[in-house]
Amino acid sequence: MNQVVAFQPAVEAYGSRSLTAADIRAQVNLMQDVMLEVMKDGTHYGKIPGTQSKSLYKAGAEKLMATFRLAAKPEVEDLSRNGEIAYRVTVNLLSPGGAFVGAGIGECSSAEEKYSWRRAVCDEEFEATPENRRRIKFSKYQGRVEQVKQVRTNPADVANTILKMAKKRAQVDAVITATAASDIFTQDIEDLPEEVVAEIVGRTAGPASNVAAAAVQQTIPTGPERDAADNEARAVAKDGVQAFREMWAAWPKQRRALVADLLPEYQAIAENAGAENAEVQP
């Protein structure tokens, strides 16, 4: 049976002790266990195209909140003006005792591309719409350029969606911040336009990120025990997700800690093995 690690915020109240290195390792191990045993790729998180980075979804943020027993207390600011609906939401996370743990902020507006335009129902609707509230959107799909007739969305029709999206963005931001999971998940990348995602994927790392990577590298265990654990984990991962989950759950926490930083690689191997096995099924 896996040991349940209780969550203690770094500073729950003034004067409380800070987390030790052992506490931090335990918290990271717990998040990785939940990610492996409970979360599903595509449901709770997803990969940024072209990279190994993972974006935390709302469902995943809720799982982490349940894991660490965090409650969300949102605060809404109405930024609507000039006929556009816009909200800024601050989500405060509270511990079971009601202590403030962390906060996240998110905004959403009906002026955003995905909420401000929709495909015209028919050519007649497009022609009947005033010229300043219609457009032809050019897009590229599988090497082909497409033209889509679009009309302006009524902002009032998406008001509730705008509010929910602002809250979702704030909640994901709060969870990533409060659980120190930025090295595991990115923030809401799935909500960005494709051209922005492409820019992020193609962006090169700067000197600051190199320094951070070097600092992280210094904390990674080395030695024959890590090598042996790594070899075993990779071999089992090639048998698929279920086999790897069973092996990982059976391992003692000390052994998992030796290769915890390699868990995303093992998951990718296991997922790819599952896909390959599915392809050869009759």
Domain unit count: 3
Strand order of the largest sheet: 1-2-9
Beta-strand portion reads 15-25%
Unreliable stretches = 1-15, 195-219, 278-282
> What would the principal axes of the Cα set say about the shape?
flat
Cα end-to-end separation: 37 Å
User: What's the total count of β strands?
Assistant: 9
Quaternary organisation: single chain
Rg over CA atoms: 23 Å
Could you state the order of secondary-structure elements as H and E?
A: HEEHEEEHEHEEHEHHHHHH
The helix/strand class is alpha+beta
Detailed description of the structure:
Helix 2 packs across helix 5 (159-178). Mean pLDDT is 77; it is low at 1-15, 195-219 and 278-282. The chain has 3 domains: 9-103 and 161-203, no CATH class; 111-152, no CATH class; 206-282, no CATH class. With 282 residues, it is an alpha+beta fold. The protein is built from 11 helices and 9 strands. Strand 3 and strand 4 (86-94) form a beta hairpin.
